[in-house]
């Protein structure tokens, strides 16, 4: 999760693709405190971002669970 700052009230806002709302031809995210627009993308840009997220999740290995836990040797 990325934190960005609202340009109007300087409130920290968590950037999340699930919080984008459709406004005419743009997808935007508004500040919870003042309601001003913090971030906006076109439909095409939104789809490109989602494709990138899906590819990253699919091809980045799960390094935490990639190797079995070895028993310590005495």
Describe this structure as you would to a colleague.
- The longest helix has 17 residues, at 43-59.
- This protein has one helix spanning 43-59; strands at residues 2-5, 12-15, 21-23, 26-30, 37-42.
- The protein has one domain (2-59).
- Helices cover 23% and strands 30% of the residues.
- The mean pLDDT is 80.
Short recap of the structure:
The chain has 74 residues and is an alpha+beta fold.
For this entry, give a set of tags.
74 residues; alpha+beta; three-stranded antiparallel beta sheet; two-stranded antiparallel ribbon; 1 helix; elongated
Structural class determined from secondary elements: alpha+beta
Please write the string of helix (H) and strand (E) elements: EEEEEH
* Strand composition percent: 25-35%
**Mean pLDDT value:** 80
Main β-sheet, in a few words?
Answer: 3 strands, antiparallel
Low-confidence stretches: none
Overall geometry: elongated
Give the strand line-up of the largest sheet.
3-4-5
* Helical proportion, percent range: 10-25%
Q: What is the C-alpha radius of gyration, as a whole number of Å?
A: 19 Å
How many β strands by DSSP? Answer: 5
For the record, give the distance between the C-alpha atoms at the N and C termini, rounded to a whole number.
42 Å
Q: What are the SSEs and their pairings?
A:
Elements: E1 2-5, E2 12-15, E3 21-23, E4 26-30, E5 37-42, H1 43-59
Antiparallel strand pairs: 1-2, 3-4, 4-5
């Amino acid at each position: 999760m990325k934190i960005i700052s609202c340009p109007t009230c300087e409130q920290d806002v968590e950037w999340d693709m699930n919080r984008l709302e459709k406004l005419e031809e743009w997808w935007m995210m508004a500040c919870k405190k003042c309601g001003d627009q913090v971030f906006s993308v076109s439909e095409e840009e939104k789809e490109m971002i989602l494709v990138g997220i899906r590819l990253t999740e699919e091809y980045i290995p799960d390094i935490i669970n990639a190797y079995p836990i070895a028993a310590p040797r005495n």
